[in-house]
Specification:
The chain has 2 domains: 54 residues, Arc Repressor Mutant, subunit A, CATH 1.10.10; 127 residues, Tetracycline Repressor, domain 2, CATH 1.10.357.10. It is built from 10 helices and no strands. The protein is 73% helix and 0% strand. Helix 4 packs parallel to helix 8, helix 8 crosses helix 9 and helix 9 packs antiparallel against helix 10. By secondary structure, it is mostly helical.
Amino acid sequence: MARPREFDEDSAVDTALDTFWELGYRGTTVDDLDKAIGIGRSSFYAAFGDKRTLFLRALDRYCGSSGQELLAALEVAEGLQAALGAALNSILAADLEGRPGLGCFMVNSVAELARTDPDVRRRAQVTFDAIETRLELAIRAAQARREIRTSLDAKSAASSLMVFMQGLRLVAQASVPASTLRSAVVGALSVLD
């Protein structure tokens, strides 16, 4: 008879996400994960299969919550530019203060693995498409309210903002001054003027 698991699998995935985030996929060993989660190697393989499978689960967990700052800001702020400004500055604060130097887990994973791993590339594309779609809907709603010019191509503007957001998250890791990054946010939002 198999023994019941003595650890919470959801918590273990969260812990693995933190470990991968700090060390990167290639820099993380199964021993690192075993130690962080607090399980032995046989329990690790029984629960997760292998390092890559656990990494993809962690990435899925992150992707499921990715963009939540954006969605929350778009729901509560009055005016699209104010909402996007709040969202982008919230993302910056998280990257600069919450986990300084670590950046965005999705962006890091894409930079490290997307060229060679189609599963990472596919997950990134789905996440980026969802963010872009949400931005496009918000832009179209703002146009319908006559808050921003109606001649603006909503899809192109959404694409530009999504790419800017991801680039911002990457550049924030390079010790670029926060004031420079905040100025870039103002510049990016000017596309909506």
